[in-house]
């Protein structure tokens, strides 16, 4: 379409012309957030311009945050919202350990999360329709028949060997070379983190955590009589290493563990770069503080690239890597693991004391699924859905929430972190929305210091007209708070 | 055979004559420990004496501890050994709380318990050949198909409703009237006890336990930073209520929980009477000390009578009853429960923090087994085997161990507590027997105060020529220690 002469006439570089067309299609709504734009080759043919021109145009659109590149997958339209700041807000970091006591909010919210009558946008569960239920149950049947005697017997820590072999193999994709002997199976990822905290800390000790932080960690810290040291984190790159270093220096010797969700963080969706993972590992090693790394969302990248884990940079056994299949295969199977580095032996003992062993039948089934179930294929298909739905929900938030609302742009997982204008109280929004049958995770849950009053975490694993209407309702309720205040 | 005239000639009462014959058959070895003797009706016919005469004879043999009556089942030959004293030995009770630190022995033993090359007489596992493997796995298949979506989803605390309904129904047999809402499912009985300790105690608190005590409890107490207060217990009736009362008075306000295995205790095999269960509940209620009752062996009575639980006497919610199907159906399924009384809500929260939920598939299968699997029929058959084998092993110990050895005479379960002559060191015996491929549970594991040096716990769930030979070997090794010393 565009001829060389036209470009010269318009005095606009050709790539800008191309970028302008795509940008127009986005603004007009023809291309919607989450949509894939034509491939470079295809657009070059369509618009009769060189491949390099299209590349230049897409690169410009990336810089303007209208498109995003996903390795080996192509370019996609980004959500139209103003994004959250890419750096953590350091306006009031206390960087002092705090006793945790937030039982009331937690109890309140947990009770509602159990209520099947409410639309659950607050709990971080995967969409069960995307789980390979039949295949899993078939494997459960086959494997318990194949290993009949074993299936009813204790598979004492470190746990089922075949499962540990499969986990060790998959960990190669995250950059780790571990043997099955370096892994302990657990009843899910939370149990792995609990065992790590129990082995590393005694009451009164300080644990460094990200802020905002997955609220279960706060409850665990409270229950174990520990103190939380909140380190600011950004929705783009995760925990602030500068703040962590400062805090470790200031609380020298007191910090006994540091918990970080390195990939597609809950709640922020952040992804740490390899460079920062390496720095994190080195920093903690230098301060003799073990790292509890939670990688439960690591398999849910929106691109085809499986991110590395911090554990892959661990040379001294200082990193305890925790994960599970609860977000990808079957939360109800409760199968997880921990690669505990130099704490392997203590974790095995601690696991045995906690509940003797992880149940055998579900371990057998998951081992078989990882070996012969087409796990990679399954991941590709659910990642596509979560990519699309996360963009769709972010888009709906942009349309329905009060002006000034900002939302995270995760590169994996299925969670969105929404920052509303300051006057809005998310605990009040939680109460209001519960009245109309919707639950959300109010920001206050994610900090001991009363931060994130105007934030909520939403689950984008579900997307249908019902959920879309719920987002509209939430937006209306949030706006009504602004009108009153 | 015996005519009235003969009796008059011998001037011996007729019933003594009958008792003498049976006693002769036992001493001669025709009737062996665990054998059932002829029924009263049958013997009365055979010997042509009245029913009352046989009754009188059997009653005399019972008093002489040669026979034992099992309700609705008949009379059985008892083990020939000198029994352990029926009252606890109170020679050196300290009745002061002690810090627990016995990691070394525990680590040592636990590692060996994992070794499949060793004959395991030390670990308290049921015989897998007696487990209904095929039926369980069939139910696992059927139920996960029937509740497909549910099977992969979280069944958040309090856990699977159908399982809780079944447990509540079965608890009627133990004298408890509880609703499913008063039960939380767990990953086995140990987890139930852990959750109870976590909810009831904070570091530094004192826990009253039986002595000797199931060693995992000691490890748990150590791990949670608690102190253990050992209360003497007898192999017949269990914990000494007098000693417990004295200790509670002396440590007023410091004791925050009391753990008791009321039925077919591990390791002693003791069975508390209903009267003592009631007294125990009242005593602890008076002192405001919650009772953690472990009833894991309760379904394994050698008689047809299912004993009550202390929980059945609980009027205030002060008893937390813990149990599981690990000794009767499938240890590897890791399905247990806790009826937590007034601590129900806290236990639910604590369970969620520990590992979110108990795995769903195994809960579904066990619920179905309890509902339609013929659990009572299954129990009858395994109880018969354990009754016989426990007597057989006790008999073999009597034949092979050094003179002066005494052994418990449990009325249920499958464990034997063996007290050897004083000079014998069971940790040394443990080391010696490991050299020849046998592991035992040395007495030192069962106390923080270094007691039970000359005791071992043995598992009678397995009985075959191999195990019989192992008992001979153990006896020889024990005797060799006496010769050296």
Describe the structure.
The structure is a homodimer of 485-residue chains. Chain A contains 17 helices and 17 strands. Chain A is of the alpha/beta class and 485 residues long. Chain A folds into three domains: 4-77, Arc Repressor Mutant, subunit A, CATH 1.10.10.10; 101-128 and 377-484, Aspartate Aminotransferase, domain 1, CATH 3.90.1150; 131-374, Type I PLP-dependent aspartate aminotransferase-like (Major domain) (Aspartate Aminotransferase, domain 2, 3-Layer(aba) Sandwich). In chain A, strands 3, 5, 6, 7, 8, 9, 10, 11 and 12 form a nine-stranded mixed sheet that branches. A four-stranded antiparallel sheet of chain A has the order 13-14-17-16. Chains A and B meet through helix 5, helix 6, helix 7, helix 9 and helix 10 of A and helix 5, helix 6, helix 7, helix 9 and helix 10 of B. Chains A, B: In the C-terminal section; belongs to the class-I pyridoxal-phosphate-dependent aminotransferase family. Chains A, B: This is Transcriptional regulator, GntR family. Chains A, B: Keywords: DNA-binding, Pyridoxal phosphate, Transcription, Transcription regulation.
